[in-house]
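note to self — DONT lose this again. spent like an hour looking for the file last time. sequence + predicted structure for the chain T wanted, 560 res
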Amino acid sequence: MSNEIQLKSVSWERIYLRLVIGPSGQDQTKRQEGALAVFLADATTGRCCGRAQTKALSDGSVEAVWNVTNRGDERCLAPGAYRFALTDNDRFVGYLRADQALSDSDAEGKDAPAVLDREFRYQKTGSYRVELSGSKDGELVVRILQKSPAGGMKGAASKSKKKLLTAYYLMQKKRYAIHAESRKKTVLFLTEQAEQLGDNLTAVYEKLRARGDGYRLLTSCRSIRTKAYGKKSTLRLLSLMAQSGVIVIDDHVPILDWLMLGEDTKLIQLWHAGVGFKATGYSRWGHSGAVGPVSCHRQISLATVSSLQIRRIFSELWGIDDARVIPCGIPRMDAFLDPEIAAVTKERLLQRYPICKGKKVILLAPTYRGRSKKDAHYPFEKIDFPALRDAADRQGYIVLCKMHPWVKETGYVPKECQDVILETDPDASINDLFLITDLLITDYSSNLFEFSVLQRPMLFYAFDEEEYGRDRGFHRPYRENAPGKVVSSFSQLLSAIETEDFEAEKLTEYVKRHFDHPDTGACDRVIDWLIEGRMPDAYRDALTLYQEETDRWKRMRFPV
């Protein structure tokens, strides 16, 4: 390899390995953007197995970033040994050397080689380990070791069951293959998290039905915690999926972690949540309970987000390429932003909660604690309800409490506080409640997302910020991105309420960054761009370029 190119530093940021590759001290010539490319090559065969993302730095160096959950084609690297192959204007110049960078970092007290190793836990007992070392020739070597989740006899039985269900699905697909044109116009709206469609799915379903574009619309709603989640409903679901050319989801679908739909089925992800702070999907890698290397998310054909500036947050979550994530907007926000619908909704809520008439309203809406739906809870002892009642009353507020849907506990508001503090109905729509809310108190929840468009103040009660970040993980710095004041104690929360210290000036930039289309056209864009495939040329071209580039590097081989 040319002596002009050296590995200057190695570091980790969550699921990203960052390499700074630069010219030697004798040659600080700035590199042409995109000229130096970095690939992951099988150490034995030289076959190209992945590509890092690169960008030129001001001093002529290049930063190469490898996402351990996505080698470049929406898959993880398989267990084995790999080297970093460098090309300059498509000409192979050698493998990246490790000796100088690793010895420098050790000497300076930075990340030593052993510290640079990382183990990423997933599911209950699975792990994906990345080890970095130098070869005998001084080249940087990446070793992948994977431990699959424990299975035993129960796991063996499950594998047999999955094979039978897959065979049934393929049989059903073959049956409906003769109705190819009808299948293209059949759309299945699917959730495995509830017994009714979520807001995004409902919004697109109703819009598609109202437009009358000749689509056949199907629905399947199951929740793993109910009796409906059984053999009969599974066979029905497999039949519905086999009939459908398009499947629209809004969350993780467990059956699609192992059932492969095939290229003749388009899977569209609407996602149920906006942008909060808690890590989920592949952003959670390294935390027990995260998704496995192969999951439902990998099958996503296209997905919608609210703006180009935040698309990478979601592509990381799903472990897919940025090009698949299109800023159509959030479907459920069409009604939320419609003035006529909002006026009717507000009046209905004031009739349901008459105590709010003529008062300012605080909505207390934190996220859950726990790992999943099964153990979701909220530590109500962290709320001093009598003190909150008195502070709110002095400022002319009524407090509505809306817990995360997974938190089933009720009756947590003391009777003596219920003249000012009320629990909302469990099935109340939080977007509807926003319309009568003057101040939102939340924590790490994504509910701040829609509320921010109203340009009303928020407080973030983060009493367990360090613990939550360690156990659950944040996908971006919390305090830097919260569009309002963050408090760590309940006394600070009460003080902020009484002094109206909300740091509301942070909202303007937040909304500008997060919303490309603050209008009522998201459902139409989802239908036109994602379901019908008539997206703007820029997004179509990006998808084509991604596929062409992926096909190209998969054909590459480097010297061994």
